[in-house]
Amino acid sequence: MKLGVLDQSPVISGHSPAQALQQTVQLARAAEDLGFHRYWLAEHHAIAALADPCPEILATRVASATSRIRVGTGGVLLPYYSPLKVAEVFRMLEALFPGRIDLGIGRAPGGDRRTAAAMSDGPSGRGYGGADRFPEQVMDLVGYLDNSLPAEHPFAGVRAQPAAARGEGAPQVWLLGSSDYSALLAAELGLRFGFAHFISAQGGAGVTRAYRERFRPSAREPQAAALACVFVICADSNAEAERLAATIDLRRLHMAYGNDNVVPSTEEALSHRYSAEERAYVEQQRARLIHGDAARVKDRLQQLSEEFGADELLAITITGDYASRLRSYQLLAEELL
Predict the structure, then answer these.
(1) Exposed / middle / buried, residue 306 (Cβ in 10 Å: 0-12, 13-18, 19+)
(2) Domains of the chain, earliest start first
(3) Is the Cα torsion angle 200, 204, 206, 212 positive or negative in sign?
(4) Most buried of 48, 133, 170, 276, CB within 10 angstroms?
(5) Is the peptide bond before 204 cis (omega within 30 degrees of 0)?
């Protein structure tokens, strides 16, 4: 099974955002040594628990600290940006680290409504066009990357730099989503697709199946390619995995309440006293989590991969300390790679 890492650069209680970013670099080095296939970095804004608003910058650091593993974004939030600028950033990354760069694209806001307005050109919130123009932005982005804008396009002839021959110097492009919207767009445009199971545990198999059924081969991708991003906590025992899962339970409760807190430590999470309603909520959210010892996690990941028809999986792990997060990936690699 091809297995990769999705890293949101979590800021764990008692640590600074700068320390969280250093932990990302250290984990990327370890992931390469362990045999993981790719390492993706997420974009979030004005969220205390997540340290990375600029995955394209952090990707440069991670790619510099490694030598073989594919490095990319999961993903760049395209509605905020100019497609030409994104194309040039990732052409530059591909020129610096040839054959190793992935451009994962999302359309979610990556923060609250006020932050999204600030990201989209201040109080007016107009920006480059917003999520309603996402399909057009994706087509423009691919056109700039591949030097394939149609002759009638208003910017035909504009070349993204660094220049390269057609079909060269461009990263892999993945559309990311937790519903069928991006899946069907990826199918129509002949692009790769990644389903965010860690955001929505429902319907993913049907979404990826629809993507494959409707996929139109393109110059970029002759056949469909799908992956699933899964929240995983792997530990030396089922009991330890359950203990570590307390952190993500409380983190999700904080999110439901709109509390902008850092990721709680395991001890902080275990000390929280839940009401009956809160306990019911976090139990419901457990559908987005696969946790247990290595054998249990392996069985569930293999089952999910078959259900989704996924060519590979990305594992996202957040626990109450960085050591147990690393240990989770080590156990995954020992069992699956």
Answers:
(1) exposed
(2) 2-336 (3.20.20.30)
(3) positive
(4) 170
(5) no
Write the CB contacts of 7 (distance below 8 Å, at least 6 apart in sequence): 24, 27, 28, 39, 40, 41, 42, 316
- Cis peptide before 162, with omega less than 30 degrees from 0? yes
Q: Which amino acid type is present at position 28?
A: A
Residue 218: which of 165, 104, 142, 312 has the closest Cα?
A: 142
Residues of the chain by 3-state class (helix, strand, coil), percent to 5: 50, 20, 35
For 31-89, the pLDDT digits (tens) are: 999 999 999 999 999 999 999 999 999 999 999 999 999 999 999 999 999 999 999 99
Residue 12 bridge partners (DSSP):
263
Tokens of 88: 């040039």
Q: How much of the chain, in percent, has pLDDT values that exceed 90?
A: 88
- Token pair, residue 282, equals 């976090």
Q: Residue 172 has which token pair?
A: 């892999």
Q: DSSP letter string over 262-273? A: PBPPHHHHHT--
| Cβ contacts of 230 within 8 Å, gap of 6 or more | 197, 198, 290, 301, 304, 313, 314, 315, 316
CA–CA separation, 158 vs 177, rounded Å?
29
Identify the CA nearest to 232 among candidates 220, 219, 244: 244
Write the DSSP assignment of 95-117 as a string of letters.
HHSTT-EEEEEE-S-SS-HHHHH
- Residue showing tokens 């591909």: 94
Summarised one tens digit per residue, pLDDT across range 225-263 is 999 999 999 999 999 999 999 999 999 999 999 999 999
Please choose, from the candidates 103, 80, 90, 86, the residue with its C-alpha nearest in 3D space to the C-alpha of residue 141.
Answer: 86
Query: Mind giving me the DSSP string for 184-240?
Result: HHHHHHT-EEEEETTT--SSHHHHHHHHHHH----SS-SS--EEEEEEEEEESSHHH
